[in-house]
Protein backbone atom coordinates (compact mmCIF):
# COMPACT_ATOMS: atom_id res chain seq x y z
CA UNK A 1 0.00 0.00 0.00
CA UNK A 2 1.25 3.44 -0.91
CA UNK A 3 1.52 5.73 2.10
CA UNK A 4 -1.75 7.70 2.10
CA UNK A 5 -0.10 10.75 3.72
CA UNK A 6 2.28 10.89 0.73
CA UNK A 7 -0.68 10.56 -1.66
CA UNK A 8 -2.46 13.44 0.09
CA UNK A 9 0.67 15.58 -0.14
CA UNK A 10 0.93 14.74 -3.84
CA UNK A 11 -2.71 15.73 -4.36
CA UNK A 12 -2.00 18.94 -2.44
CA UNK A 13 0.72 19.72 -4.98
CA UNK A 14 -1.11 18.56 -8.12
CA UNK A 15 -4.83 18.99 -7.38
CA UNK A 16 -6.85 21.43 -9.50
CA UNK A 17 -3.80 22.21 -11.62
CA UNK A 18 -2.97 21.48 -15.26
CA UNK A 19 -0.41 18.69 -14.93
CA UNK A 20 2.36 17.80 -17.34
CA UNK A 21 3.68 14.27 -16.92
CA UNK A 22 7.20 13.04 -17.66
CA UNK A 23 7.39 9.27 -17.83
CA UNK A 24 10.26 6.81 -18.14
CA UNK A 25 10.98 3.11 -18.37
CA UNK A 26 9.60 2.48 -14.84
CA UNK A 27 6.03 3.09 -16.03
CA UNK A 28 6.37 0.10 -18.38
CA UNK A 29 8.12 -2.49 -16.19
CA UNK A 30 4.67 -3.73 -15.05
CA UNK A 31 3.97 -4.41 -18.74
CA UNK A 32 7.01 -6.68 -18.83
CA UNK A 33 9.48 -4.29 -20.49
CA UNK A 34 12.68 -3.98 -18.47
CA UNK A 35 14.16 -0.61 -17.48
CA UNK A 36 17.87 0.24 -17.60
CA UNK A 37 18.52 1.39 -14.10
CA UNK A 38 16.15 -0.38 -11.72
CA UNK A 39 17.50 -1.52 -8.36
CA UNK A 40 19.82 -4.52 -8.67
CA UNK A 41 20.00 -4.32 -12.45
CA UNK A 42 23.35 -4.98 -14.10
CA UNK A 43 24.56 -1.84 -15.84
CA UNK A 44 23.93 -2.26 -19.58
CA UNK A 45 25.34 -0.19 -22.36
CA UNK A 46 22.58 0.83 -24.77
CA UNK A 47 23.44 1.08 -28.46
CA UNK A 48 25.43 4.16 -29.25
CA UNK A 49 24.74 5.96 -32.54
CA UNK A 50 28.38 6.28 -33.65
CA UNK A 51 28.98 2.57 -32.98
CA UNK A 52 25.83 1.67 -34.94
CA UNK A 53 26.99 3.68 -37.96
CA UNK A 54 30.61 2.52 -37.77
CA UNK A 55 30.39 -1.12 -38.95
CA UNK A 56 27.99 -3.61 -40.57
CA UNK A 57 28.85 -6.00 -37.70
CA UNK A 58 27.49 -3.55 -35.10
CA UNK A 59 24.27 -3.20 -37.07
CA UNK A 60 24.03 -6.99 -37.49
CA UNK A 61 24.48 -7.45 -33.71
CA UNK A 62 21.78 -4.86 -33.02
CA UNK A 63 19.22 -6.40 -35.39
CA UNK A 64 19.94 -10.01 -34.39
CA UNK A 65 19.26 -9.21 -30.72
CA UNK A 66 16.30 -6.99 -31.53
CA UNK A 67 14.82 -9.72 -33.75
CA UNK A 68 14.87 -12.31 -30.96
CA UNK A 69 13.45 -9.82 -28.43
CA UNK A 70 10.79 -8.31 -30.72
CA UNK A 71 7.87 -10.64 -30.10
CA UNK A 72 7.99 -9.96 -26.39
CA UNK A 73 8.09 -6.21 -27.02
CA UNK A 74 5.22 -6.45 -29.53
CA UNK A 75 3.11 -8.45 -27.05
CA UNK A 76 3.41 -5.84 -24.26
CA UNK A 77 0.13 -4.19 -23.30
CA UNK A 78 -0.57 -0.96 -21.36
CA UNK A 79 -0.79 -1.46 -17.59
CA UNK A 80 -2.99 0.39 -15.05
CA UNK A 81 -0.47 3.25 -14.78
CA UNK A 82 -0.70 4.00 -18.53
CA UNK A 83 -4.50 3.70 -18.33
CA UNK A 84 -4.73 6.05 -15.32
CA UNK A 85 -2.66 8.72 -17.09
CA UNK A 86 -4.89 8.48 -20.17
CA UNK A 87 -7.99 8.85 -17.98
CA UNK A 88 -6.51 11.92 -16.29
CA UNK A 89 -5.93 13.43 -19.73
CA UNK A 90 -9.55 12.75 -20.75
CA UNK A 91 -10.70 14.37 -17.51
CA UNK A 92 -8.72 17.51 -18.40
CA UNK A 93 -6.36 17.08 -15.45
CA UNK A 94 -3.29 16.06 -17.45
CA UNK A 95 -2.55 18.68 -20.11
CA UNK A 96 0.38 16.87 -21.72
CA UNK A 97 2.68 13.88 -21.43
CA UNK A 98 6.36 13.73 -22.30
CA UNK A 99 7.60 10.15 -22.44
CA UNK A 100 11.14 8.88 -22.76
CA UNK A 101 9.73 5.46 -23.58
CA UNK A 102 9.81 4.06 -27.07
CA UNK A 103 7.24 1.29 -26.48
CA UNK A 104 4.12 3.19 -27.64
CA UNK A 105 2.14 2.03 -24.59
CA UNK A 106 0.88 5.49 -23.58
CA UNK A 107 -0.73 5.90 -27.00
CA UNK A 108 -2.01 2.33 -26.71
CA UNK A 109 -3.73 3.29 -23.45
CA UNK A 110 -5.43 6.26 -25.12
CA UNK A 111 -3.22 9.24 -24.22
CA UNK A 112 -3.26 11.73 -27.08
CA UNK A 113 -1.34 14.81 -26.00
CA UNK A 114 1.98 13.00 -26.04
CA UNK A 115 5.49 13.84 -27.09
CA UNK A 116 7.45 10.64 -27.59
CA UNK A 117 10.81 12.23 -26.91
CA UNK A 118 12.94 9.34 -28.14
CA UNK A 119 10.63 8.08 -30.90
CA UNK A 120 9.02 4.66 -31.24
CA UNK A 121 10.70 1.29 -31.54
CA UNK A 122 7.88 0.12 -33.85
CA UNK A 123 8.99 2.67 -36.48
CA UNK A 124 11.97 2.03 -38.72
CA UNK A 125 13.69 4.48 -41.02
CA UNK A 126 16.20 4.15 -43.87
CA UNK A 127 19.50 5.90 -43.18
CA UNK A 128 20.00 6.53 -46.93
CA UNK A 129 16.62 7.59 -48.35
CA UNK A 130 14.53 8.22 -45.23
CA UNK A 131 11.83 5.71 -46.25
CA UNK A 132 9.67 4.81 -43.22
CA UNK A 133 8.87 1.13 -42.57
CA UNK A 134 6.69 -0.58 -40.01
CA UNK A 135 8.71 -2.73 -37.66
CA UNK A 136 6.19 -5.56 -37.96
CA UNK A 137 6.71 -5.60 -41.76
CA UNK A 138 10.47 -5.62 -41.28
CA UNK A 139 10.11 -8.44 -38.74
CA UNK A 140 8.28 -10.51 -41.38
CA UNK A 141 11.09 -9.90 -43.87
CA UNK A 142 13.64 -10.82 -41.22
CA UNK A 143 11.72 -14.06 -40.50
CA UNK A 144 11.76 -14.96 -44.21
CA UNK A 145 15.53 -14.69 -44.52
CA UNK A 146 16.28 -16.06 -41.03
CA UNK A 147 13.83 -18.97 -40.66
CA UNK A 148 13.78 -20.36 -37.11
CA UNK A 149 16.52 -17.98 -35.91
CA UNK A 150 14.44 -16.49 -33.07
CA UNK A 151 12.81 -19.84 -32.14
CA UNK A 152 16.19 -21.53 -31.75
CA UNK A 153 17.44 -18.74 -29.52
CA UNK A 154 14.42 -17.99 -27.40
CA UNK A 155 16.06 -19.76 -24.46
CA UNK A 156 18.72 -17.03 -24.57
CA UNK A 157 16.12 -14.45 -23.55
CA UNK A 158 17.21 -13.38 -20.11
CA UNK A 159 14.36 -13.14 -17.58
CA UNK A 160 14.36 -9.37 -18.04
CA UNK A 161 13.85 -9.66 -21.81
CA UNK A 162 17.42 -8.95 -22.85
CA UNK A 163 19.05 -11.37 -25.26
CA UNK A 164 22.59 -12.61 -24.94
CA UNK A 165 23.74 -13.73 -28.35
CA UNK A 166 27.19 -15.24 -28.97
CA UNK A 167 29.24 -13.77 -31.82
CA UNK A 168 28.62 -16.97 -33.88
CA UNK A 169 24.86 -16.51 -33.52
CA UNK A 170 25.13 -12.90 -34.59
CA UNK A 171 27.29 -13.76 -37.61
CA UNK A 172 24.54 -16.05 -38.94
CA UNK A 173 21.87 -13.34 -38.95
CA UNK A 174 20.91 -11.92 -42.36
CA UNK A 175 20.05 -8.21 -42.16
CA UNK A 176 17.46 -7.04 -44.71
CA UNK A 177 17.91 -3.51 -46.04
CA UNK A 178 15.54 -0.80 -47.26
CA UNK A 179 12.93 -2.05 -49.77
CA UNK A 180 13.30 1.13 -51.82
CA UNK A 181 17.06 1.70 -52.03
CA UNK A 182 18.68 -1.27 -50.26
CA UNK A 183 20.24 1.13 -47.70
CA UNK A 184 20.82 0.43 -44.01
CA UNK A 185 17.83 0.64 -41.70
CA UNK A 186 17.63 1.99 -38.17
CA UNK A 187 14.84 1.92 -35.63
CA UNK A 188 13.41 5.45 -35.61
CA UNK A 189 14.47 6.07 -32.03
CA UNK A 190 17.05 8.40 -30.55
CA UNK A 191 20.14 6.33 -29.73
CA UNK A 192 22.65 7.38 -27.12
CA UNK A 193 24.93 9.97 -28.67
CA UNK A 194 22.14 11.23 -30.92
CA UNK A 195 20.17 14.43 -30.36
CA UNK A 196 16.43 14.70 -29.95
CA UNK A 197 15.07 16.76 -32.91
CA UNK A 198 14.96 20.44 -31.89
CA UNK A 199 11.26 21.01 -32.67
CA UNK A 200 10.36 18.05 -30.44
CA UNK A 201 12.36 19.55 -27.56
CA UNK A 202 10.63 22.91 -28.12
CA UNK A 203 7.20 21.29 -27.94
CA UNK A 204 8.14 19.78 -24.58
CA UNK A 205 9.36 23.11 -23.21
CA UNK A 206 6.09 24.72 -24.36
CA UNK A 207 4.12 21.99 -22.59
CA UNK A 208 6.01 22.56 -19.34
CA UNK A 209 5.81 26.34 -19.63
CA UNK A 210 2.03 26.27 -19.98
CA UNK A 211 1.54 23.74 -17.17
CA UNK A 212 0.79 24.39 -13.50
CA UNK A 213 2.40 21.28 -12.02
CA UNK A 214 4.75 18.47 -13.03
CA UNK A 215 4.42 14.75 -12.31
CA UNK A 216 7.37 12.44 -12.98
CA UNK A 217 6.56 8.73 -13.17
CA UNK A 218 9.11 5.92 -13.38
CA UNK A 219 12.27 7.68 -14.45
CA UNK A 220 15.67 7.81 -12.79
CA UNK A 221 16.11 11.17 -14.58
CA UNK A 222 19.71 10.12 -15.22
CA UNK A 223 19.55 11.24 -18.83
CA UNK A 224 19.70 14.98 -19.49
CA UNK A 225 17.19 14.54 -22.31
CA UNK A 226 14.29 14.18 -19.86
CA UNK A 227 15.80 15.84 -16.78
CA UNK A 228 16.03 19.27 -18.46
CA UNK A 229 12.24 19.60 -18.32
CA UNK A 230 12.21 18.98 -14.57
CA UNK A 231 14.88 21.66 -14.18
CA UNK A 232 12.72 24.05 -16.25
CA UNK A 233 9.67 23.28 -14.10
CA UNK A 234 11.73 24.04 -10.98
CA UNK A 235 12.86 27.37 -12.48
CA UNK A 236 9.19 28.18 -13.06
CA UNK A 237 8.50 27.19 -9.43
CA UNK A 238 5.93 24.58 -10.43
CA UNK A 239 5.09 21.99 -7.80
CA UNK A 240 6.95 18.79 -8.74
CA UNK A 241 5.83 15.31 -7.69
CA UNK A 242 8.19 12.40 -8.39
CA UNK A 243 6.87 8.83 -8.31
CA UNK A 244 9.79 6.44 -8.69
CA UNK A 245 11.04 3.28 -7.08
CA UNK A 246 14.48 4.33 -5.92
CA UNK A 247 16.34 7.62 -6.18
CA UNK A 248 16.34 10.02 -9.13
CA UNK A 249 18.77 12.73 -10.15
CA UNK A 250 16.22 15.44 -9.41
CA UNK A 251 14.97 14.39 -5.97
CA UNK A 252 16.30 17.69 -4.58
CA UNK A 253 13.85 19.54 -6.86
CA UNK A 254 10.78 17.55 -5.78
CA UNK A 255 7.97 19.03 -3.74
CA UNK A 256 6.77 15.48 -2.95
CA UNK A 257 8.52 12.15 -3.48
CA UNK A 258 6.65 8.84 -3.62
CA UNK A 259 9.11 5.97 -3.60
CA UNK A 260 6.74 3.29 -4.81
CA UNK A 261 5.44 1.47 -7.87
CA UNK A 262 3.92 3.52 -10.67
CA UNK A 263 0.86 1.26 -10.87
CA UNK A 264 0.23 1.41 -7.11
CA UNK A 265 0.84 5.16 -6.82
CA UNK A 266 -1.40 6.01 -9.78
CA UNK A 267 -4.10 3.72 -8.49
CA UNK A 268 -4.07 5.89 -5.35
CA UNK A 269 -3.73 9.21 -7.16
CA UNK A 270 -6.37 8.64 -9.85
CA UNK A 271 -9.54 8.82 -7.71
CA UNK A 272 -8.08 11.61 -5.58
CA UNK A 273 -7.21 13.75 -8.61
CA UNK A 274 -10.52 13.07 -10.36
CA UNK A 275 -12.47 13.94 -7.24
CA UNK A 276 -10.63 15.78 -4.44
CA UNK A 277 -13.44 14.80 -2.02
CA UNK A 278 -12.18 11.20 -2.18
CA UNK A 279 -8.85 12.13 -0.63
CA UNK A 280 -10.66 14.25 1.94
CA UNK A 281 -12.97 11.46 3.07
CA UNK A 282 -10.00 9.05 3.27
CA UNK A 283 -8.23 11.59 5.47
CA UNK A 284 -11.33 11.96 7.67
CA UNK A 285 -11.63 8.19 8.09
CA UNK A 286 -7.97 8.01 9.11
CA UNK A 287 -8.36 10.68 11.79
N1 LIG B 1 9.84 0.97 -22.07
C1 LIG B 1 10.71 1.62 -22.84
O1 LIG B 1 10.36 2.18 -23.88
C2 LIG B 1 12.17 1.70 -22.41
C3 LIG B 1 12.73 0.69 -21.63
C4 LIG B 1 14.10 0.81 -21.28
C5 LIG B 1 14.83 1.92 -21.69
N2 LIG B 1 14.25 2.88 -22.44
C6 LIG B 1 15.05 4.08 -22.85
O2 LIG B 1 16.11 4.21 -21.94
C7 LIG B 1 16.22 5.47 -21.31
C8 LIG B 1 16.10 5.20 -19.82
O3 LIG B 1 15.74 6.31 -19.05
P1 LIG B 1 14.51 6.22 -18.04
O4 LIG B 1 14.67 7.29 -17.01
O5 LIG B 1 13.28 6.15 -18.83
O6 LIG B 1 14.69 4.82 -17.35
P2 LIG B 1 15.69 4.33 -16.25
O7 LIG B 1 15.86 2.87 -16.51
O8 LIG B 1 16.90 5.19 -16.14
O9 LIG B 1 14.88 4.56 -14.89
C9 LIG B 1 13.73 3.84 -14.61
C10 LIG B 1 13.41 4.08 -13.13
O10 LIG B 1 12.14 3.51 -12.87
C11 LIG B 1 12.20 2.84 -11.61
N3 LIG B 1 11.16 1.81 -11.68
C12 LIG B 1 11.22 0.58 -12.26
N4 LIG B 1 10.04 -0.03 -12.19
C13 LIG B 1 9.20 0.83 -11.56
C14 LIG B 1 7.83 0.76 -11.19
N5 LIG B 1 7.07 -0.30 -11.50
N6 LIG B 1 7.29 1.83 -10.55
C15 LIG B 1 8.06 2.93 -10.26
N7 LIG B 1 9.34 3.03 -10.56
C16 LIG B 1 9.90 1.99 -11.23
C17 LIG B 1 13.59 2.31 -11.51
O11 LIG B 1 13.96 2.09 -10.18
C18 LIG B 1 14.41 3.44 -12.18
O12 LIG B 1 14.81 4.38 -11.21
C19 LIG B 1 15.10 6.30 -21.87
O13 LIG B 1 15.70 7.31 -22.57
C20 LIG B 1 14.30 5.38 -22.80
O14 LIG B 1 14.31 5.89 -24.12
C21 LIG B 1 12.93 2.78 -22.82
ZN1 LIG C 1 16.16 3.57 -48.48
Q: Report the average pLDDT across residues.
A: 92
Specify the structural class.
alpha/beta
Q: CATH topology, which one?
A: Rossmann fold
> Residue ranges: pLDDT <50 for 5 or more in a row?
none
**Small-molecule components bound:** nicotinamide-adenine-dinucleotide, zinc ion
H-E order: HEHHHEHEEEHHHEHEHEEHH
The CATH architecture classification is 3-Layer(aba) Sandwich
Number of strands: 9
Any idea what the radius of gyration is?
A: 20 Å
Strand content: 5-15%
Q: Could you tell me how far the N terminus lies from the C terminus, measured between alpha carbons in angstroms?
A: 18 Å
Number of separate domains: 1
Number of helices: 12
Sheet with most strands: 6 strands, parallel
Helix content: 40-55%
Q: What spatial order of strands do you see in the largest sheet?
A: 3-2-1-7-8-9
**Global morphology:** elongated
CATH class: Alpha Beta
CATH superfamily grouping: TPP-binding domain
Describe the structure.
With 287 residues, the protein is of the alpha/beta class. It has one domain: 3-Layer(aba) Sandwich (Rossmann fold), CATH 3.40.50.1220. It has twelve helices and nine strands. The strands form two sheets. Strands 3-2-1-7-8-9 form a six-stranded parallel beta sheet, sandwiched between helices. It has a three-stranded antiparallel beta sheet with strand order 5-4-6. Helix 1 packs antiparallel against helix 12 and helix 4 runs parallel beside helix 11. The longest helix is centred in the N-terminal third of the chain and has 20 residues. The chain starts with a helix and ends with a helix. The mean pLDDT is 92. The structure holds nicotinamide-adenine-dinucleotide and zinc ion. Nicotinamide-adenine-dinucleotide (NAD) binds next to loops.
Amino acid sequence: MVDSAALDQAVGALGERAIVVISGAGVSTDSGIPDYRGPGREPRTPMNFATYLATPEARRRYWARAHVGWERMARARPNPAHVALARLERAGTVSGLITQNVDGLHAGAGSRRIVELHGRIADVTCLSCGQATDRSDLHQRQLEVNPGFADRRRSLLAPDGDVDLAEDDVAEFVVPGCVVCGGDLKPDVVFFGENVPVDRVRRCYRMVESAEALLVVGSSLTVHSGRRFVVRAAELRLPIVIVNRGPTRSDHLATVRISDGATQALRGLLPRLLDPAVGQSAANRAS
